[in-house]
Amino acid sequence: GARAWAAENPVLSAAAGPRDVEPRLTDVDVELELPLGIGLRRARRIGMARADLERESAAAADATREGLAAAAAAFYRALHVERRAEWAAARVRLASELEAAARARHETGDVPLLDLNLARMERARAESLVEVEAARRAGVGAELKQLLGLDPEAAVVVDGELGDRRRFELAALIAAAAGRVFPRNVEPGQT
Question: Fewer CB within 10 Å: N-end or C-end of the chain?
């Protein structure tokens, strides 16, 4: 293909003028300067440009890797919060059963009012924990949506096992995502 022959253009300079001597003469001076890449300056500049290109390619690959790592970390945080929310809901169910049992035993005179109040307090704590986990779920979900580039109003369902830390191949994930609906007209494999 076409490429530059030299880093600098050749320079053509000319001068003409009369000489004040006898016989009368006209002097003409023509110079052609053609810069040569002495010391392999051109090759060095090309090598530096290629090194800069490789550095930027590596920086782009590193940014991609860091973005994927951030998204994976956010996914596992969201999965952890989901499990904590499930445990908090189970705690509410158990505390409600405990309160019902304490109420029935108090009505029969088997336990004092203090035991019933303790059961009520435990149910209130459990319900409070459900609200805390809901707030955590919202925060982590917003972070995950931002990292994935999703609409903030989009519903995100996090599903998986916390102990499953397999490495995934990008081609397999794209194949698994084929046929799904993606926001903003993004197709699988498109960056």
Answer: N
Looking at the DSSP assignment, which residues form a beta bridge with residue 18? 26
Q: Which of 59-68, 112-121, 159-168 has the highest mean pLDDT?
A: 112-121
* Angle of CA points 6, 12, 14, to nearest 5°: 170
Q: Which residues pair with 11 in a beta bridge?
A: 33
User: What single letter denotes the amino acid at residue 76?
Assistant: Y
Q: What is the 3-state secondary structure (H, E, C) of the chain?
A: CCCCCCCCCCEEEEEEEEECCCCCEEEEEEEEECCCCCCCHHHHHHHHHHHHHHHHHHHHHHHHHHHHHHHHHHHHHHHHHHHHHHHHHHHHHHHHHHHHHHHHHHHCCCCCHHHHHHHHHHHHHHHHHHHHHHHHHHHHHHHHHHHHCCCCCCCCCCCCCCCCCCCCCHHHHHHHHCCCCCHHHCCCCCC
CA–centroid distance for 136 within its chain:
21
Contact 14, 32 (CB under 8 A): no
Q: What is the pLDDT of residue 33?
A: 83
Q: How far is residue 56's CA from residue 6's CA, in Å, rounded to a whole number? A: 26
In this structure, the number of other CB atoms found within 10 A of the CB of residue 119 comes to 22
